[in-house]
Every structure is written in structure tokens, then in C-alpha cells.
């Protein structure tokens, strides 16, 4: 009994162990299958990754080459930039040096322009330069320091007197008020202080205008328009004064003074130069008209001589034809009769001259005929009388034609 229980227990234990082992193997098998599937998927993923990496490498290879080139270019640019910065530093040093020299020269110039004599000389030199650029000629179209006497008997001497066509003259005087203008350019000024200096600059220029108006330059030069040009040798000088005193132009014009900067005066003088050229063209046209009138008047003498020569030629042809007729009717008849009688040599023949049928071409040009008739009418002659005159010339001989022609 106990043996059977043991056998049954062993069988039951074996069965349970087999069942447990089977479950374990089944679990391991399932786990192995799962791992196989995972490994297969990983292998597929790795294959896909390797393929993608190969394609990426193929695509990235040109990009890598381009990046290498870019790196080289960047390196070159960095090197060039360093060299350029070095050159810029050198140029900046030069600019700083030049700026310092310019500052010193500007200070020296400002100091020089503080002198009234220097300012006056600068204004006169600038005025002369504008005159030369405009195309006017010294001592021909303008004179410098030309003295005149006004109606009040005062002697005046403007800087320049510009000569206009038709014996007219225009006085130009250079004025360069700069003291207050230069003071307004100083550093560290407030807007109010700068405006104060500019108003003083405008008042100074207004004073020059009044002084020029009081001199009456236009009364000192005959034919001068009733104005005088006040030349300000700097655009900035005039602009600053007009900005501080907008009524300055009207004030000057009311006193017959024209304010002119270099640009304004250049335009005015260019107009004067053009007027001189137009005047020269008008003189040339008048001279050409006079020559044309003289030439047309002389056509009468040419027509008279031509008509006399034609009449003489006609008479010569007529006389020749009369001579040929007389020779044929009187001389050649006797010569032929002598030949018939055997009194003449057989080797000698007597030619028969032909009459001339061509007559001189008569004058038909209206200019020659009209001038000829007018000339003959002034002399109390007519063209038939001129033909008779030619007949008398023909009878006297060819030498008389020259006398008649004279």
C-alpha cells in the first residue's frame, strides 16, 4: 500500500515536474522567439541605418568639400580684413595728422582774415577770378581800379568797371565783412550767441551797402545803369547775412545796390559776355550788309562793261560777215576766172571762207540788267546808246575798249 502511494506520489511529482518544466520551456521558447523578432527588427533597423548613413555620406561628401572651400575663403577673408584694418589704421593716422595740419592752417587763415587789408585783397582776387572764368578780357571788357568823378565832384575808384555794349559801364566793388562771421563759427557757442554774431555780420554788410549807395558810382561813368554791384566773395558770407536779415536784399535794391555772390556774379558776367558776342555778331552782320550793297552796286559797272563787250563782239561778227560776202562776190570770182583761163597754178586752191553765224549771248540776269539800266540812267545813257558807243570803240580799234571799260 505504501509502495503504491509512493509510486503514485512519484508519478504525480514527475507529472508536476514535467508540467512545470514544460511551462518553463514554453516560456523560454516564447522569450527566444520574442528576442529573435526583436533582433530581426534591430538587424533590419541597422541595415536601414547603414544604408541611410551611406546615402548621407554620399550626399554630405560634396558639402564637406564646399565647407572646406568656405573655410579656406573665410581664412583668406580674415587675413585680408586684418591687412585692410592695418591699412585703415595707417590712413586714420594720416587723416588725424592732416586734420591737425588743417586745423593749424585754418587758425592761421582765420588770423590772416582778421586783417581788413587781407580781406580786401582776398575779395579783389576772388572778383578777378570770377571775371576771368566768365570769359571777359582784362583791359578790353573790364578795367580794374578805374577812377571816375561823380556828379558831386568826388573821385571814386571801384574795384572793377565792366564795359557793356553800346558804350555802357557797370561798377563792381568787392566787400568781405568776416569778423563777426568768423566769430560765429567758433566752438562752444550757444545758439543765441551764434545768432547774435550773425546779426552783427548782417549789420556790417548792410553798412557796406549804405556806403556804396552813398558814393553814387553810376554818376561817375557815362552810360552806366543806375546800379552798383556789391560783390561778396563767399557764398556762405552772403547766405549767413541774408539768413540773419531777410530784408537785406530789399534794402540793397532800394538803394540801387545789387548783392552778388560768386555764383550770382558769374551768371551776370556770362550774360555780359554773351551780349558782347551778340554785339560783335551784329557788327559783322552790318559790315556784311555794307559789302553786299557795295557788291550789288558794282554789278552795274560789270554789266555796262559786259554789254559794251557784247556789242563790240556783235559788230566784229557783222564786219567779218560783210568782209566774207565782199570777198566771195568780188575777189573770189576773179580768182576763179583766172583759174579757168589757166593763169593760176593747179596746186593752189582758193578757199571759200564761211560766215560766222554765232552771236554773243545777251545779258539776261535781272541783277545785271537792273543795275546796268540804273547805272546808265544815272549817266543819262541807254543800252542802244551803249551799242553805238561800242561801234565807235570798234572803229577806233581794240585798244580803246580798255579805255571805255575803265
Summary keywords:
406 residues; alpha/beta; Trna Endonuclease, Chain: A, domain 1; five-stranded mixed β-sheet; 7 strands; 7% strand; coiled coil; DNA recombination protein RmuC
Describe the structure.
The protein has 406 residues and is of the alpha/beta class. Among the domains are: 115-260, Trna Endonuclease, Chain: A, domain 1 (3-Layer(aba) Sandwich); 290-405, no CATH class. The protein contains ten helices and seven strands. The chain has helices at 2-113, 116-134, 179-184, 191-215, 235-244, 248-254, 262-340, 366-378, 383-396, 399-405, and strands spanning 142-144, 148-149, 155-156, 160-164, 168-174, 228-231, 257-260. The strands form two sheets. A five-stranded mixed beta sheet has the order 1-4-5-6-7, with helices on both faces. A hairpin with a 5-residue loop joins strand 2 (148-149) and strand 3. Helix 4 (191-215) packs across helix 5 and helix 7 packs across helix 8 (366-378). It is flat and about 210 Å long.
Sheet with most strands: 5 strands, mixed
How many beta-strand runs?
Answer: 7
| Separation of the first and last Cα atoms | 196 Å
Oligomer: single chain
Low-confidence stretches: 393-406
Question: Which architecture of the domain at 115-260 would the CATH scheme give at its second level?
Answer: 3-Layer(aba) Sandwich
Query: What percentage of amino acids are in beta strands?
Result: 5-15%
**CATH fold assignment of the domain at 115-260:** Trna Endonuclease, Chain: A, domain 1
Order of helices and strands: HHEEEEEHHEHHEHHHH
Count of helical segments? Answer: 10
Strand order of the largest sheet: 1-4-5-6-7
Tell me the overall shape: flat
Amino acid at each position: 500500500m505504501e509502495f503504491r502511494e509512493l509510486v503514485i506520489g512519484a508519478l504525480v511529482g514527475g507529472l508536476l515536474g514535467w508540467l512545470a518544466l514544460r511551462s518553463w520551456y514554453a516560456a523560454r521558447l516564447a522569450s527566444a522567439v520574442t528576442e529573435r523578432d526583436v533582433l530581426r527588427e534591430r538587424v533590419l533597423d541597422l541595415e536601414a541605418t547603414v544604408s541611410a548613413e551611406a546615402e548621407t555620406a554620399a550626399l554630405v561628401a560634396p558639402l564637406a568639400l564646399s565647407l572646406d572651400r568656405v573655410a579656406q575663403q573665410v581664412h583668406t577673408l580674415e587675413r585680408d580684413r586684418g591687412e585692410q584694418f592695418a591699412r585703415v589704421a595707417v590712413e586714420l593716422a594720416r587723416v588725424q595728422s592732416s586734420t591737425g595740419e588743417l586745423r593749424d592752417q585754418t587758425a592761421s587763415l582765420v588770423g590772416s582774415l582778421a586783417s581788413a587789408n587781407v580781406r580786401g585783397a582776398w575779395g579783389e582776387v576772388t572778383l578777378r577770378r570770377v571775371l576771368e572764368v566768365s570769359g571777359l578780357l582784362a583791359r578790353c571788357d573790364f578795367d580794374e581800379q578805374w577812377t571816375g568823378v561823380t556828379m558831386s565832384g568826388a573821385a571814386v575808384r571801384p574795384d572793377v568797371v565792366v564795359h557793356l555794349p553800346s558804350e555802357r559801364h557797370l561798377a563792381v566793388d568787392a566787400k568781405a565783412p568776416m569778423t563777426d562771421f568768423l566769430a560765429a563759427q567758433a566752438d562752444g557757442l550757444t545758439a543765441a550767441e551764434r545768432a547774435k554774431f550773425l546779426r552783427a555780420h548782417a549789420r556790417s554788410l548792410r553798412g557796406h551797402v549804405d556806403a556804396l549807395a552813398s558814393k553814387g558810382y553810376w554818376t561817375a561813368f557815362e552810360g552806366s545803369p543806375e546800379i552798383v554791384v556789391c560783390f561778396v566773395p563767399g557764398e556762405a558770407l552772403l547766405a549767413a547775412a541774408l539768413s540773419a536779415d531777410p530784408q537785406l536784399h530789399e534794402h540793397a535794391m532800394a538803394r540801387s545796390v545789387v548783392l552778388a555772390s560768386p555764383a550770382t556774379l558769374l551768371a551776370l558776367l556770362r550774360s555780359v559776355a554773351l551780349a558782347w558776342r551778340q554785339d560783335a555778331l551784329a557788327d559783322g552782320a552790318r559790315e556784311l550788309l555794307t559789302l553786299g550793297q557795295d557788291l550789288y552796286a558794282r554789278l552795274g559797272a560789270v554789266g555796262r562793261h559786259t554789254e559794251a563787250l557784247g556789242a563790240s563782239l556783235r559788230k566784229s561778227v557783222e564786219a567779218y560777215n560783210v568782209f566774207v560776202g565782199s570777198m566771195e562776190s568780188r575777189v573770189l570770182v576773179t580768182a576763179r576766172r583766172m583759174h579757168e583761163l589757166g593763169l593760176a597754178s593747179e596746186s593752189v586752191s582758193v578757199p571759200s571762207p564761211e560766215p560766222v553765224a554765232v552771236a554773243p549771248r545777251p545779258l539776261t540776269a535781272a541783277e545785271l540788267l537792273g543795275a546796268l539800266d540804273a547805272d546808265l540812267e544815272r549817266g543819262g545813257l541807254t543800252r542802244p546808246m551803249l551799242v553805238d558807243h561800242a561801234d565807235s570803240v570798234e572803229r577806233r580799234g581794240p585798244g580803246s575798249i580798255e579805255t571805255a571799260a575803265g
